[in-house]
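User: structure tokens for this one?
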Amino acid sequence: MLNEQTIFSRTALLIGSEAMEQLASRRVIVFGVGGVGSWCAECLVRSGIRRLTIVDSDSVSPTNINRQLMATTLTVGLPKVEVMKARLLAINPQAEITALQQVFEQETADSFLLDSYDYIVDAIDSLKDKALLIIRATQTKARLFSSMGAALKMDPTRIRVAEFWRVTGDPLARALRKRFKRDALYPARKFQCVYSDELLPNRGTPGEEEQTMFHKAQTNGTVAHITAIFGLTLAGLIVQDAIDK
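Assistant:
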């Protein structure tokens, strides 16, 4: 059986054994393993993160295949977190992967024990639940990294990283700020976001299956290279922070 020393030899060559130990000791939780979160989770494990919790209530659907790492014609109908866990353990069998098929919301928030993690990744789509996670996460000792909207974008050169209150041109960030102001409830501290200021129109129309499966006012188009870059950037921010410490 391959061991971690072999699997991560090229990473260790670049960053050194002490940094590898830092990565292996960190606890990370990723909320949402869709187009952004799935790529983030895989990159974290391939980088040497050993203790990872992934959270998502959904199962793989056919419309996920164009952009979500674990979504294939063979995994449709299976729980996303279970498919993702199997893939991550195939990368590193010694990793400690916890898969939670749950929703982060007001009723379940306390059960996730956010204070027990070093890093929290927000890749949630729901505005209400995303706002709640940001509020709760910034009240802990953990470092939060958040994804803003990855839909309606095509240009990879416009993807940026900025502190939340400095994110510009992103409708999701704007909606979050409006919600925080409305509720007079703000994040306890600053946190970094991955975002793009590009905003394209939908040029097509949703298919019949998509209209049946999703109960949204509007379903927006998304492509793999954008969601992947968002997720990989989030993972990179965690890896860099862990090494710097």
